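Question thread 4412

I'm putting together a teaching handout and wanted feedback from people who do this every day. The idea is simple: show students a protein as raw sequence, then show them the structure tokens that encode its fold, then repeat with a second protein so they can compare. Below is the first pair exactly as I plan to print it.
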Amino acid sequence: MDLFTQPHVLARNTDPETSLIAARELAATGQLGKMELTALNLVLMSPGSTSAELEKRNGYERGQIGKRLSTLVNSGRIIRGDKRKCNITGKLAFTHYTKPHKPR
């Protein structure tokens, strides 16, 4: 099993049982890998965006992409950038980059 087939990356043991069930279903249907690839592609297309900006701009519900970004950061596939005011929420939020795009 790799990152794209392990349901525990989407739900913590402390999450509600429904979240754990949903994570298992995503892994079983292959949707888990698709959503992470989608998140990676969104970062490639819009480096420096917050999760809320990526979701709103691309028609996803809040949290659908953000959860995948955390997994991608933890696996080293993308980098969490600096914090800035999010254009969607108005709150301070991390930006996301692929490794070649992160400003120095």
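The second pair follows. I'd like the answer to focus on this one:
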Amino acid sequence: MDLYLAATSIGYSHIERNVVCQDHSSSYHYKNRTIVTACDGHGGNLYIRSDRGSKFASEAILYAFKKVDKEFLRSKRSETHIRLEILCKWNELVEKDYSEFPFTEKELSTLNEEEKELLFQEPQIAYGTTLNGAMIFDRNLICVSLGDGGCLVLKNGMAEEIFPEEEENVGNITCSMCQSDAFKHLRAKILPLEEVDGAIVFTDGFINPYRTFDNFCTSCVKPIVESLKRGEKDKILDFVSKLGTKIGIGDDVSLGIILKDKF
């Protein structure tokens, strides 16, 4: 059986400001299919429902990944189809939520008239979020990513970037599921499982406390992988909680990790 874990912790700055956790992570396992997600709802005045947006992003990944079967993977356009399934499902969930629960006066109270008008014209903006997910299915590893945070493949004790950093992801600026051109930025990759050991997905609050990518891989990713191999899930969960509430940069943090059952 594959080894996997997903965890989220609210950041201490959100606790201090009485802001809800805007991250969401999830995991799923059944037979030969294991999925993990890590999604980050945006901060900022306009994103008044980004906590729901990140939850819907996780749900969209699970929905799309569960539809993947062996026949699906034979298609040369399977990566494109996965991207479409995720984007369409996220928009469907957002539209359903907004139709059932229109914006309230309380939600809009911090916005000026111009900002309110923008949200009424494009309500999906309120749900803005990044998205990262990975699945081991049959003999394949499938990864998806949009926005900051990341998705790394694990191989021979090393972590490698699978998607190049987008130019838009600079500082606090990131690509988003709420953009009109989100499909262009939503990336998917299918790899033979024999080439890798697994994958790790995370939000920017998880990596930003580390000065360099190498420092992150050495001081964070490697110990987590080793702990998961030893079955020390509680140790990882405790670390995620501390990173969010005590020792990180104050942002929410989310992690999802998946390792194939044989190394």
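Top answer:
Good format. For the second protein you could add a caption like this: Strands lie at 3-9, 23-30, 33-40, 131-137, 140-146, 150-155, 158-161, 187-192, 198-202, 253-259. The radius of gyration is 18 Å.
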